[in-house]
Amino acid sequence: MKKDIDIPAAENPEELLKLKLTEPKKWAAGMPAVYEAMKDVLEEAGPIRGMEALFHMNKKGGFDCSSCAWPDPDDDRSPIAEYCENGAKALAEEATTKKLTAEFFAQNSVADLAKLNDYHIGKKGRIAQPVYLPKDATHYEPISWDDAFKKIAAHLNSLASPNEAAFYTSGRTSNEASFTYQLFVREYGTNNMPDCSNMCHESSGVALGDVIGIGKGTVTLNDFYDTDVIIIMGQNPGTNHPRMLTALQKAKENGSKIIAINPLHEAGLMGFKNPQRVKGILGLNPKLADLYLQVKINGDMALFKAIEKLLYEEELKTPGKVFDQEFIQNNTIGYADMIASLEQYKTEDLAESAGVSIEQVREAANMLKDKSRIIICWAMGITQHVNGVDTIKEIVNLILLKGSIGKPGAGLCPVRGHSNVQGNRTMLIYDKPYKKQLDKIKEVYGFEPPREHGYDVVDSIKAMHEGKLKVFFAMGGNFLSAASDTNYTAEALRKNKLTVHVSTKLNRSHLVHGEEAIILPTLSRSDKDMVNGEAQFITCENSMGVVQSSKGILEPISKDLLSENQIVCRLAKATIGVRTVVDWDKYAMSYDAVRADIEKVIPGFDDYNKRAREPGGFYLPNAPRTGKFESEKFGDKAGFSVTRLTEHKLADDEYQMMTIRSHDQFNTTIYGLDDRYRGIHNERRIILMNPADIQKGGFKPGEKVDLFNYHGGKERVARLFVIVSYNIPEHNTATYYPEGNVLVPIDTVAEKSNTPASKLVIIKIKKHQPIVA
User: Fold this and answer.
1) Does pLDDT of 279 surpass 70?
2) Is residue 638 in a domain?
3) Is residue 44 part of a domain?
4) Are residues 292 and 208 in the same domain?
5) What contacts 11, CB < 8 A, 6 or more positions away?
6) What crossing angle do the helices spanning 202-211 and 388-401 adopt, rounded to 10°?
7) What is the CATH number of the domain that holds 247?
8) Quick one: DSSP state of residue 767?
9) Is 299 exposed, middle or buried (0-12, 13-18, 19+ CB in 10 A)?
10) Which pLDDT score, from 0 to 100, does residue 623 have?
11) Are residues 251 and 172 in the same domain?
């Protein structure tokens, strides 16, 4: 088989490094985390710049970490470090003193850069000036800001319809920039606003919006300190949200029990050595999970149905003692139908389907039987499944049965990934806006916003493929590497007339482009944002609905950077021109002016400028948190759901694959090449397999293999992976993303939310066959 080497690669190079394996860890953090965090910061930013930034990160009056959306404490914050290892690594990425100038782009062609792996691409440094890739050119070249805006505007204004453009948003974009961005896009005339929520917690938003009336979680951080049971499922906090471990430790100390549900035994669920405590430094008593349920991939719904059946049996013995019947009667609809639906299942069959012993299911039910202060947390391991929305509705079913919502220490906690992904949606970044939201925009600004629904991420990719989109504009992120079906997505991007990326650092999406391409370099969270000699601040919303300020303190590495908000405002002026009814100059010059108008458009932002300046910020309204429900479907009640169990039948040579992060990674940003908690070092092209599967398949640990998916009659292949023997259920496997994304079919998505189903892909594994050049 021959491979076209002229087109810049959409995937990481098919080459292996020198894999080293060690025993997987049974605890997370500790002094190794401190060492790794400090090493990256010192290497990239230096001791003075780096330590100054660390001291201000996540502090009141400081700047918000650009990685995860885990909330900061409402009360006193750590005087030592209010950040985690991955937060420090995220800071190192943006605080680096390395920068990419015109000379760099002149010396490095797009095709040559694409031959690097994602780790080395990201380590090149901050982009220091706007650059432009002309049609048929091989190298990016410098372009002025004015010329860049004129060129983008010319493309946008030449389209037959505004619906031929799509405007993507990453979760790092601030509230202010998100608001002006969606305002520009709607005044331009489209709702084509795909965003990173489409690829992560869209299933949570759809499910929760349906049954409790709000697509957000219902707990605060303080609820974790006063609860009886915490269930953590489809989530790996030790890597993805390490600061959550401190909250879990505090919950344990206050008497809470923790149930962990995951196909892998993750270090951060088993134990935590807090490096800010003497006991943590000494490694004393690090245990977290009291019960670890190692489900099969997508076994979560079956597990919850089994637990609910056992609880119902106990409820029949002692009515009103296990289920909160008063809450159910006064606050819910659909209880009888939901209970009737459970009767079609046998508990033993459900346990088998989940991959968990019936004894462990009984243990879980016993831990919940007499408790009502229950918090359930989840992330991508739940949302990125075909039945993701229904699985979340099943989670809500259990919470409603126990009356575990609208009271202290109880509720639902979808743990968001990126730092302001929840705030983006609050600021109306949405391809399916509600009528009342659009009516408010019309009332405040006077123009008629588009009413038809736009494209989300998956639909945008398909539309590019079909030639329905001509311009793709990305406010942050690494769209190509984050999306599913990598080569299909790359083909789609290449069909655009123009692709534009607002970015801090180089990534693979800059190298797989339309006929023309532009990169607009922007300020990072830690950078000072000076406008007319006055330091501006932005705001972000975390996973628990707290809006707080973020004010950078570092000198930007280049004077040729603009904030996201200023980029939006200048692009809007260039594109809409005299037709605009928005004072874009006012917004560009004062973020207070943006916030003043957000207050007029979006509920919950009364006295925004005043409250944004309060230390620690403020909570947005959340009716279910107070025991009230405002659902379009159920009115002032919460709704029970009848869900169906999905059966997965595999041939003998087929396996279920889920994509996962390594520890040295946040989303598509690769900080390093070691996944030290899982004992995998200096390699990312690996597949975790059960030892029995390795033997049955005629393979050996360390063997090179190719991975195949045949969904829809199309062959998708990920070549040159190494088998790692691991404690994972039989016929279940795991690969890192983005390396495994090439196997995720574009049309295998969660029902109702259209989220790529990256956590369950049917694959076949074959011995590696080298490609003939």
Assistant:
1) no
2) no
3) no
4) yes
5) 486, 487, 718, 738, 739, 742
6) 40
7) 3.40.228.10
8) E
9) buried
10) 96
11) no
